[in-house]
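Recall the central idea of this unit: under ordinary conditions, the amino acid sequence of a chain determines the structure it adopts. In this exercise we apply that idea directly, starting from the sequence alone.
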Amino acid sequence: MREKYLWLVIAVLTILSLGQACYIYEQTAAASDFAGQPPAQPEIRKMGYAEKAYDAQWEQFRKWRDRIAGRLKRGTPLLEPDFDVFFDDNYFSRRLTPFDEMEHIRRQMSDLFQGSEKSSFDDYWNKWFKERMVMGEFRTDIARTDKDVILTILIPELVGNEAAVDIGNGRIRVSFSAKTASEKKSPGGIVRTETSQSYIKILPIPDDAAAGSGKVETDGRQVKIKFERKNN
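Accordingly, the structure predicted from this sequence is:
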């Protein structure tokens, strides 16, 4: 009888030992499954404003990039609106250094293409950039006093002595029309013709100028924008 009870105790202890071993194995396996994984996140992760803004910028860029790539693959010419639609007021207002980032975007886009598509993109970009960002014959000067920053744009043949100036976050947009004159020889002498062309130019706000303080004055062929200096 005593031997019978002894074997019963041994059997119970064996079962308990096996159960404990299985439990330990399951826990070790579960731990190894999650090893190296980040901790579980809440079901709803609240994104900060900066992260949302970055995601919105990336999505906007991706759509524009794909649209430009599609047009180039089809051999469709890129026009000024194809660039203006991305480099709009939202672009300039959402970036700390919009003009520096513009060059980064140009390089990134150019590297996306090869062969004739790359050459075409570079040509279209340079044409648009010259039309929008390069002042050319319209000279600009900056003068400073202790309190003010004065940006002067010289437009030799400004039509109607008027220009529309919009000062936003990070950029100045100037819209105007200017006359161009040409001469051509004819049997009766020299024929002079005049035409007018509309322009939209985009300039950076001087670094030391307070953007919200800009005041515009048009005097003949000069457009003057007077800003208060920062920290004054």
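Confidence is low (pLDDT under 50) at residues 1-49.
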